[in-house]
Design brief:
CATH topology of chain A: Rossmann fold
CATH class of chain A: Alpha Beta
CATH topology of the largest domain in chain B: MetI-like fold
Largest sheet of chain A: 6 strands, mixed
Order of helices and strands of chain A: EEEHEEEHHHEHEHEEHH
Helix content of chain A: 25-40%
Helix content of chain B: over 70%
CATH superfamily of chain A: P-loop containing nucleotide triphosphate hydrolases
Distance between the termini of chain A: 32 Å
CATH architecture of chain A: 3-Layer(aba) Sandwich
Radius of gyration of chain B: 24 Å
Number of domains of chain B: 2
Largest interface: A-B, 30 and 24 residues
Number of strands of chain A: 10
Number of domains of chain A: 1
CATH class of the largest domain in chain B: Mainly Alpha
Oligomer: heterodimer
Strand order of the largest sheet of chain A: 6-7-8-3-9-10
Order of helices and strands of chain B: HHHHHHHHHHHH
CATH architecture of the largest domain in chain B: Orthogonal Bundle
CATH superfamily of the largest domain in chain B: MetI-like
Structural class of chain A: alpha/beta
């Protein structure tokens, strides 16, 4: 992993440029019958402030559990999570999390869904709603403020989700295959929107995906995880493609293809391994 | 067009049923066809006649005697529903948030719910007298469990993702109650609203039937006591129309309060 390994973050060693520092993370689940399942093991990963890191790996490699550990929704079985140099305890208050599954409140309209994060933080409801409208405008949904989630398309719901998370101005943005269920065109539009918003206010981003092309097009750095169980980081690549980028255009660049070929050749073996394990009888 | 056709068919069913009843109870089968004597296929002594039933019902409304009894039954139903639903919501919420409590009381809740409520009616009459409160109590025991189980389910079945999202958005336990658990529980409660209101009415009428001095159940019971079949059918007719009206009100309230829910037809 070259120079990417993270020094243990004990007293006095806090490096504040590191928004997220995961070191020696192991996450083990105990099944109903008492059997142990280790999702990830020995993961060292750091994300600098303002850096966009994409985490790619075959299905079931425990990418999401890393995000959950960073969010504080899950306590790792071993290892430490440090946020801006401070060990994480409880929920990560500086992180915003865009979930893979539907996470909007179905009983709230789009504008109320976006405003809620401010409201619970004590912002005056009128002001919260005004700012929520502003954010809906930024994600191109001004006309849909009063709609309920079920009246929006999948892509629109994701945009509301993005506004809901970003309105709280988190320093760290965690995204778990946020565009997974969308069609290819919508994914590109969403990707460009995400990059525009991120360019305006650079946050540390951990973006989990199984789509290598998407990862290369979006990120500053692509981290590849091996097949589970007990998956590890098997490699990482810096993506030096110039910014600002246009996702649909950047895919035509020779540099993009070269990177893609290089990373894919490393990932392929793991994907094959992942399939083989999935097909083996339990 | 489809709607008109449906309505036509629905009315047709009523017309056919009433026609069968009418002719069965007013036209005699002549002697010698089925039996030695001429007879009514639907003996008016046992079945009354539709005309008599409508006349009786009209007279009851016209003279105003029925209004008082309707009012009593409505009051009992409303009280039973409000008290039972409030109790069900509170306890359902409480149990869903305190797993230990729910586990301890689980067998007792099941036992109490399995008990046929009719056997409670005499006890309530003994405790609370023959006034409206014994009927309200009976309705409450019915409504409470329906609402309780639904609210409990509603709180337990909040999507884990929505919950995780709420917590990541900075919600405290109090916020979660207000913005997540409460709306979720309400949806489940509304899905049981029709049943709950129906049971509140059942509690009231059965209670009146078993011992009271007023109400629709009381009227039906009185009529039965003197073999006044017309009175019984008239009481049933009023009850049926009453239920349909209440159900329409519930539907209107439900549509109002759950605008955010997807409809099967899709309104977007």
């Amino acid at each position: 992993m070259g120079g990417a390994s993270v020094a243990p973050l004990h007293a006095g060693e806090a490096r504040h440029s590191r928004a997220v520092a995961l070191s020696g993370i192991r996450i083990t689940f105990t099944g109903r019958g008492g059997e142990q399942f280790t999702a990830v093991e020995g993961v060292d990963l750091h994300v600098a402030d303002g850096e966009f890191v994409a985490i790619v790996g075959p299905t079931g490699c425990g990418k999401s559990t890393l995000l959950n550990a960073t969010a504080g929704l899950l306590v790792p079985s071993a290892g430490t999570v440090a946020i801006f140099g401070e060990p994480l305890s409880g929920l990560n208050r500086r992180a915003g999390y865009l979930f893979q599954a539907e996470a909007l409140f179905p009983w709230k309209s789009a504008v109320d869904n976006v405003a809620i994060g401010l409201e619970v933080a004590g912002t005056d409801p009128g002001e919260a709603r005004a700012r929520a409208r502003d954010w809906l405008g930024r994600v191109g949904l001004s006309a849909f403020a009063e709609r309920y989630p079920h009246q929006l398309s999948g892509g629109q719901r994701k945009r509301v989700g993005l506004a809901q998370v970003l309105i709280r101005d988190p320093k760290i943005l965690l995204m778990d295959e946020p565009f997974g269920p969308l069609d290819a065109q919508t994914r590109q539009i969403m990707g460009n929107m995400l990059l525009d918003l991120w360019n305006a206010e650079r946050k540390a981003v951990m973006f989990v995906t199984h789509d290598l092309e998407e990862a290369i097009a979006l990120a500053d750095r692509v981290v590849i995880m091996g097949a589970g169980p007990a998956s590890r980081i098997i490699g990482e690549w810096r993506i030096g493609l110039p910014r600002p980028r246009d996702i649909s255009e950047i895919r035509m660049e020779p540099a993009f293809h070269a990177l893609h070929r290089e990373i894919w050749s490393a990932l392929r073996d793991e994907v094959v391994k992942g399939y083989r394990q999935a097909e083996e009888p339990a | 067009m489809k709607r008109a056709r449906l309505l036509f068919l629905q009315v047709l069913v009523a017309v056919v049923l009433i026609a069968v009843w009418h002719f069965g109870s007013t036209v005699k089968v002549p002697a010698g066809i089925v039996s030695q004597k001429a007879f009514y296929p639907l003996d008016p002594f046992f079945f009354s006649t539709p005309l008599a039933v409508f006349q009786r019902t009209w007279r009851d409304f016209y003279t105003g005697v029925i209004w008082y009894h309707l009012g009593i039954t409505l009051l009992e139903t409303a009280l039973a529903f409000v008290i039972g639903a409030a109790g069900g919501v509170l306890v359902g919420f409480w149990f869903a948030r305190k797993q230990m409590l729910a586990a301890v009381f689980d067998p007792y809740v099941k036992m109490a719910n399995a008990l046929p409520r009719v056997v409670l009616a005499p006890i309530f009459a003994l405790w609370l007298g023959l006034g409206i409160w014994s009927k309200v109590a009976l309705g409450v025991t019915l409504v409470f469990f329906i609402v309780f189980f639904n609210v409990y389910q509603g709180v337990k079945e909040v999507s884990p993702t929505v919950l995780a999202n709420a917590r990541m958005l900075g919600m405290s336990e109090r916020h979660l109650m207000r913005h997540v658990y409460w709306p979720s529980a309400l949806t489940w409660m509304f899905s049981s609203l029709h049943t709950a209101v129906g049971f509140a009415l059942v509690g009231a009428v059965v209670g009146e039937y078993l011992g009271s001095a007023a109400g629709l159940g009381y009227r039906i019971h009185q009529a039965e006591g003197v073999f006044d079949v017309t009175g019984v059918f008239s009481g049933m007719l009023v009850l049926a129309v009453f239920v349909i009206l209440i159900d329409a009100v519930v539907t209107a309230v439900e549509n109002r309060l759950t605008v955010w829910r997807p409809t099967a037809a899709g309104q977007s």
